[in-house]
Amino acid sequence: MADDTIAAGAAAPAGDTGAVDTSAAAVASPAAAAAPVAAPAPSAAADPAKATEAAAAARAAVDKGKEAPAAEDDGPWGKDWRDKLAKGDAKKLAMLGRFASPEALLAAQEEAQRKISEGLKPKGKPGDKATAEDWAAYRKENGIPDAVEDYVKSIQLPDKREIGEEDKPVVEAFAARALARGVAPADMAHMVDEYYSIQEAQIVAQEDADAAYKRESMKALRDEYGGDFDVNVNAMRPYFDGFDADLFGKLMSGRMADGTKIGNDPNIVRFFVNKALSENPMATVVPSGGGNMETLNSEISSMEKRMRDDRVAWGRDSAAQERYRKLITARDKLKA
User: Fold this and answer.
1) How confident is the model at residue 278 (pLDDT cuts 50, 70, 90)?
2) Are the C-beta atoms of 221 and 215 separated by less than 8 Å?
3) Residues sharing a CB contact under 8 Å with residue 127, sequence separation 6 or more, in sequence order
4) In whole angstroms, what is the distance from residue 146 CA to residue 131 CA?
5) Cβ partners under 8 Å of residue 298, min gap 6
6) 66 or 236, which is more confident?
7) Do 163 and 155 contact (CB within 8 A), yes or no?
8) Whose CA is closest to 1, among 254, 260, 217, 269?
């Protein structure tokens, strides 16, 4: 395990109007005036059923593009209104031939526009009382898979990134809930991508905090241990080797309750340094693997011989003198 610690988102139908005849013929001829008036032909408005049929026929003619009955007169547009609109385009002229008048063309255009507008309106999600069949139809209309596994596979992240194996259980749990609420895979992809972005930002922030805490702790320990900082810190690992060589890395890379790394806590370092040195005083003076009394005594004897044979050179060698003092201290602790 790598160790970087110190420790190592409708119009109503119009009514008929009866006009009174006041012409001279009508006044001069009582017989004519008394002649019975023929009853008017029943209008479509007088017969609701026929009115409905007529409206349906007109609507069908518009919807299916069939030719409506020919107009009784040319109207204000003239007989050549189709030619004027087509402007020599044969396809347009053929299309306009399906309509009896410009009014019929306008009605067809309005109807088509209405249908287009209705078709573009998104259908809302099924409500709380919707059935399984309602949800299945909604998913089918919106391209949403029915199975969670297929749903997860349809999630396409930006930049061709893929969902990591260790993240799949979490994504599958969210996918099951998203599927139940009719969330489209594309929308879910945005949420998963945002999830990764938040994770990455948290990792960067944690790494920055770890580095700052490590620098702070190291300064405090270097001030305290001085030149013995390295040997004291290095003495901790052998203390664990006799029990479990992997335990040291696992422990030091763990985190305290406040989120800081255990191996960066100065009090943790002090504790294990003291434990290591109290149980093995030679840990700071004898290389790892050679920590026994014989090795210690041999080095002391060698230094004492140098003191006798070349006192001038020995007196100038402060590093050797410091080493000698540590060896003596370690020997005395072992004898105690």
Assistant:
1) confident
2) no
3) none
4) 14
5) none
6) 236
7) yes
8) 254
Q: Is the dihedral of CA 22, 27, 28, 34 positive or negative?
A: positive
Stated as kind and residue range, the H or E segment containing 219 is helix 185-225
**Residues 300 and 327 sit within 8 Å (Cβ to Cβ):** yes
Q: What is the DSSP letter of 332?
A: H
DSSP-based helix, strand, coil % in the chain, nearest 5 = 65, 0, 35
- Each residue of 78-115: pLDDT tens digit? 888 889 888 999 988 888 888 888 888 888 888 888 77
Closest CA to 182 of 125, 240, 128: 125
The DSSP annotation for 226-246 comes to: GGGHHHHHHTHHHHHHTT-TT
Q: Are 277 and 271 in contact (CB under 8 A)?
A: no
Our CA angle for 162, 164, 167, nearest 5°, is 125
Say if residue 127 is exposed, middle or buried (CB neighbours under 10 Å; 0-12, 13-18, 19+).
exposed
258, HSE (Cβ side, Cα atoms, 13 Å): 7
CA dist 198 to 139, 201, 205, 258, Å? Answer: 29, 5, 11, 20
Q: At what angle do helices 185-225 and 266-279 cross, to 10 degrees?
A: 50
DSSP H/E element including 310? none
User: Residue 61: which of 104, 123, 110 has the closest Cα?
Assistant: 104
- Between CA 9 and CA 194 the distance in angstroms is 5
Structure tokens at 280: 């093995």
Residue 202, CB-side half-sphere exposure with 13 Å CA sphere: 7
Report d(CA 192, CA 164) in Å as an integer: 11
pTM comes to 0.49
In DSSP terms, 255 is beta-bridged to: 261
Per the CB < 8 A criterion, the answer to whether 6 and 264 are in contact is yes
